[in-house]
Amino acid sequence: MDSKMEEKSEAVLDMSPTSTVGGGVEDIYGEDRATEDQLITPWTFVVSSGYNLLRDPRYNKGLAFTEKERDVHYLQGLLPPAVIPQELQERRLMQSLRGYEVPLNKYVVLMELEERNERLFYKLLIDNVEELLPIVYTPTVGEACQKYGSIFKRPQGLYISLKEKGRILEVLKNWPERKIQVIVVTDGERILGLGDLGCQGMGIPVGKLALYTALGGVRPSACLPITIDVGTNNEQLLKDEFYIGLRQKRATGKEYYDFLDEFMKAVKQNYGEKVLVQYEDFANHNAFELLAKYGTTHLVFNDDIQGTAAVVLAGLVASLKLLGGSLADHTFLFFGAGEAGTGIAELIALAISKKTKAPVEEARKNIWLVDSKGLIVNARKESLQAHKKPWAHEHEPVNNLLYTVKAIKPAAIIGTSGVGQTFTKEVIEVMASINKRPLIMALSNPTAQSECTAEEAYTWSEGRAVFASGSPFPPVEYNNKLHIPSQANNCYIFPGFGFGLVMAGAIRVHNDMLLAASEALASQVTEEHYGKGMIYPPFGNIRKISAHIAANVAAKAYELGVATRLPQPADLVKYAESCMYTPNYRSYR
Ligand SMILES: O=C([O-])CC(=O)C(=O)O
Ligand SMILES: [Mg+2]
User: Fold this and answer.
1) N- or C-end of the chain: fewer Cβ atoms within 10 A?
2) Is 190 part of any known ligand binding site?
């Protein structure tokens, strides 16, 4: 970049209230204030018609355009004569989708549909959520990220790479929508349990935001997927001729944090205080720091730390119906002490402390964590990362999961390590010998990273396990009884949680909102579900569940004084339902 350009790009960032150039009220894009040498984006809005209308995924209806619409919008001749309703389009597409055996092919077909006809895509997703969730989300989305370079067709979100350093605000302005409510951002360093996938991690923000709309009701145009590309340490990708990202090792330290700081500032400048930034699949060594750093200045939420925590806490609370006792009566053992492990552990401790009025430090004592070096104990405290230190309890060192289970005798083992097949037959058998109903949570994603399968958990515990996993498993018949595994995945929480924040115009996230979301989810599990061994409600009702979560979260935001949309609606559940995006076609004048 030459020095003149640099000057300009710095100038564009200088839109502080102290700038000497005047600006109109709510001149959030700096267009009024800009001087001649400052850069702005020349926006135009056009009415779509004819061929362009068919190519516009937001408004395209394909063969569902009525005769009148075809007349008025210059579509005659551009479509075959048949006019078919959306329901028939849906039926036809589901039939063709079911014809594909390979899940990745289904993924590609669905993404193409999203690119072609957005409302039809969401109609399919909402009406067939249980069938399509494993395609647009874990496990298939993991494979899609691994092969993203080969299946890439069109960008579905914003790529912000180190090449754009100093110009991130301009890059944000290249996105065609201005009224963004939710951003999901990754830097691709820890995609599910698959590790560093660099720029190809984009599949995750795209998938998460599809669920924001389908499960939570946030309108698609208000969602923005972002991948921050600071390089990758994945040698295989660096050598892959089809890799779509920067071919360099990851930037770290000051360079990384300065870049993220520019991003966070640009986001606030461009979209204001109320845009939600959801951090997704960052590596542990950055995730905690980013959340702590921006939690006090921005509306940020880390799905892997906080979303997973709220979901798992809900499942634990629900499981008490099957296990008996209260949270404070049980011992929990985590295998994996990263974002998910410590995030869940901390929220359990907070929930116990609120209930028993004991200090959080006291509540932590029945919660044990194992990392790659073994049980986290006091003797290791000096060398532990900050997020692990609160979990160092007094115990002799143990560096094997089986021995740890024997020593700690937990009611639940919760796998959050990203390493598959670690809950062995011996581990489950010991859990079953200690507990009448051992709670086994194999949370790592995608399926191959699961600590054990549902079938293994039921078989090895002779049908007594209460089982939940991060990625879906089919029901298992054991001893003539059908066991229905639960899917303890953060997608139960984040869509409703984010929707609640947006609804209330919240400007900060608070732990009490996580507890509120968790309670709302647990309250949706019924006796019928318990009877089948389930500790989460089925996904079929997810929009209703999301409305309850959103309402509880919004209520908490109002109570805490961080809601800006006033006055508070009288019935928040009804209000949430009434605000949700619906995918049926609209009629065009
Ligand atoms: O994406 C999912 O399925 C859950 C999640 O956040 C992760 O595993 O990182
Ligand atoms: Mg994640």
Assistant:
1) C
2) yes
What are residue 276's DSSP bridge partners? 182
* Whether residue 554 has pLDDT greater than 60: yes
Q: Is 281 near ligand 1, meaning CB less than 6 Å away?
A: yes
Q: Do domains 85-298 and 312-489 have the same CATH topology?
A: yes
Atom of ligand 1 nearest to the CA of 445: 8
Q: Tell the residue nearest (CA) to atom 8 of ligand 1.
A: 192
pLDDT band at 4 (very low <50, low <70, confident <90, very high): very low
Which numbered atom of ligand 1 lies nearest the CA of 138? 3
> How many Å apart are CA 468 and CA 111, to the nearest integer?
28
127 is in an annotated binding site: no
Mean pLDDT calculated for residue range 410-418: 98
Fold annotation for 312-489: Rossmann fold (3.40.50)
Question: Is residue 485 a contact partner of residue 467, using CB atoms and an 8 Å limit?
Answer: yes
Domain boundaries, the chain: 85-298, 312-489, 492-568
SS3 content of the chain, % helix, strand, coil (to 5): 50, 10, 40
pLDDT digits (tens, 9 = 90+) for 308-324: 999 999 999 999 999 99
Ligand nearest to the CA of 470: 1
pLDDT value at residue 28: 67
String of DSSP letters for 324-393: -S-GGG--EEEE--SHHHHHHHHHHHHHHHHHH---HHHHGGGEEEEETTEE-BGGGGGGS-TTTGGG-B
Amino acid at 37: D
Strand pairing report for 182-186 and 276-279: parallel
Question: Which residue type is seen at 439?
Answer: L
> Does a cis peptide bond (omega within 30 degrees of 0) precede residue 176?
no
CATH superfamily of 85-298: Malic enzyme, N-terminal domain (3.40.50.10380)
Any known ligand binding at 304?
yes
Mean pLDDT of 224-233: 98
Sign of CA dihedral 449, 455, 460, 466: positive
Query: Is 499 exposed, middle or buried, given 0-12, 13-18 or 19+ CB atoms closer than 10 A?
Result: buried
Q: Where are the alpha helices (DSSP H) in 78-176?
A: 86-98, 103-116, 118-127, 129-136, 140-146, 148-151, 168-174
Residue 280 annotated as lining a ligand binding site: yes
Does the beta carbon of 490 lie inside 6 Å of ligand 1? yes
Distance 445 CA to ligand 1 centre (A): 6
- Mutation probe of ligand 1 site: the residue of 197, 209, 281, 344 with most atoms within 8 A of C-beta: 281
Mean predicted lDDT score pLDDT of the chain: 94
404 alpha carbon – ligand 2 mean position (Å): 27
The interface predicted TM-score of the complex, written ipTM, equals 0.98
Lowest average pLDDT, out of 11-20, 234-243, 537-546, goes to 11-20
Q: Which amino acids are annotated catalytic?
A: 137, 208
Instruction: Identify the pLDDT of residue 45.
Output: 76
